[in-house]
Amino acid sequence: MTDALAGTPTRLFIGGAWVDAADGATLPVDDPATGEILCHVADGGLKEARLAEDAAVRAQEAWARTAPRARSEILRRAHELVLERTERLAHLMTSEMGKPLAEARGEVAYAAEFFRWFAEEAVRVDGGYGTLPDGRHRMLLSRRPVGPCLLITPWNFPLAMGARKIGPAIAAGCTTVLKPAPQTPLSSLALAAILQEAGLPDGVLNVVTTSRAGEVCEPLLRGGRIRKLSFTGSTQVGRLLLAQCADAVVRTSMELGGNAPFVVFGDADLDKAVDGAMTAKMRNMGEACTAANRFFAHRSVAEEFGERLARRMAALVVGPGTRTGVDVGPLIDAKGRAKVADLVADAVARGARVLVGGRTPEGPGCFYPPTVLADVDTGSRLMDTEIFGPVAAILAFDDEDEVVRRANDTPWGLVGYVFTEELDRALRVSERLEVGMVGLNTGLVSNPAAPFGGVKQSGLGREGGRVGIDEFLDYQYVAIPRT
C-alpha cells in the first residue's frame, strides 16, 4: 500500500460511522497504470443503502433548520482542509484513476473551489414578498431544501464531481447518500473523512461504495424518501435512472454524455486554436464529457491545423501518472482502451489518415497514445460516439452553414468550441450551436462560478454557478389576504 493510501478509509460511511458491508463483501480498486490491485473497499448492498437512506432521512429536519452561516462555515473549513491535503489527495487520485499528478493537483484545487463557492452561496438563499396583481393578497415566497438526495458520481473526476454535488446540497440544507463509481471510491471516502473533520453532522453525508449499482440505487429512487437525484455519467445510464425516478416523481439533475464539436474557421489564430485543441482534447487523457470529439477545420487551414496538432500530440510523454514528466496517463481500464482502439481502427478502415499515434502499445497498463486522424469519413463510428480517449478526428468544411449543421448533427449538446477572430461570426456561431456551453477561442469551459450542463441528450439542469444551489431548493408560496 502506498503512502497516499495509508490512512484512507476503505469502509462505508453511514450515519457518521465507518462500517463494513454486512456480508463482508469487498471490491478491488485497481491501478490502471499497472493493472495491480491497490486495495479493497467495502462493497455495500441494499441493506447498507437502506441504512444510509435512513441516516439521511433522520438528519434532514435538523440539517434544514441549521443556520445558513453554520452550513457555510463547514464548507469553508472543508475547502481549507482539501487544499492543505493537496499532495495526499492528488497521489490518491492518480493511483486509482491514472491521471498525471499535475492534473490531479489541478483537480484538487478545482474540487476545493466548489466548497468555497457554495460556502458563499449558502448565505445568499433568499425569497420574496409583495402584493399580487389583484391587490387582494400579499405573496410570501421562500425557498426550502428539497430533502434527502442521492448523488451518483463518475470515475473520471472523482474528487471534483463529489464536491460539485455535495457542496450545493450541504449549502441548501439537504442530506445526502453518495454512490461513487466503483473504479474510484477512494477519493470519495477521503472527501467524506474531510467533511466529517470539518464538522459536518452525522447523517448529512453518507457514502456507499458498491459494485451493485442497480441493487443499491433503484429501490431508493422508487421508494419515495429520496427526493432528489444528481447524476453524472453516460446518457444510456441516465435514461435508465430517469425512468426509475418516475414512480416517486424524484427531482433530477442529469449531467450526461457529450460529443463536442471543435470548429476552426479560416481566419482563426492557429497558435491559439492548437493550444485550445490540446486543452479540449487532452485534459484528463480525453476522458471527459467536455472533451472535443469532432474537429472541424476550414479547408483552407485543415492541413496546417492537423500537422500542428499532430506535432504537439507527438511531443506528449505517456506513462504512469506518478512519474515525473509524464503528460498522459493510462485510460481507466482495459475495456475503455479497447473501445478507443476499435473506434480508431474503424475510422482508418474507412479511409482516415493517421498523423500520429493509432497503435495500442504492448506491456502492462491501459495506455493509449495521443492520436490524430485526418480526412475522417463522416460515417465513422467515432463521429457519433463519445470517444473518451486521446483521439482527435479532423474533418474539413467549406462554409459556416455547413459546419453548424454538421456540428449540431448529434443527439448530444453539452459543449462546443469555436475559434475565429471575427466577432460577428464568433457570436453568431455560438448562438447557432445547440449546446449548453461554448468555449470561444478557449479549450476550457469548466469553472465553479459558471453553470455547467447541456441540452438535448446531454442532460437536465445545471451544476455550479449561482444557479447550482437552485437544483437543491424548492419554492414555497404563501398567500396572505390583505385586510
TrEMBL record:
PANTHER family given in the database record: SUCCINATE-SEMIALDEHYDE DEHYDROGENASE, MITOCHONDRIAL (PTHR43353:SF5)
Entry-linked InterPro entries: Ald_DH/histidinol_DH, Ald_DH_C, Ald_DH_CS_GLU, Ald_DH_N, Aldehyde_DH_dom, Aldehyde_DH_Superfamily
Name of a matching Pfam family: Aldedh
Protein name according to UniProt: NAD-dependent succinate-semialdehyde dehydrogenase
Keywords carried by this UniProt record: Oxidoreductase
Residue numbers annotated as active site: E255
Family: Belongs to the aldehyde dehydrogenase family.
GO biological process: gamma-aminobutyric acid catabolic process
Organism: Streptomyces dioscori
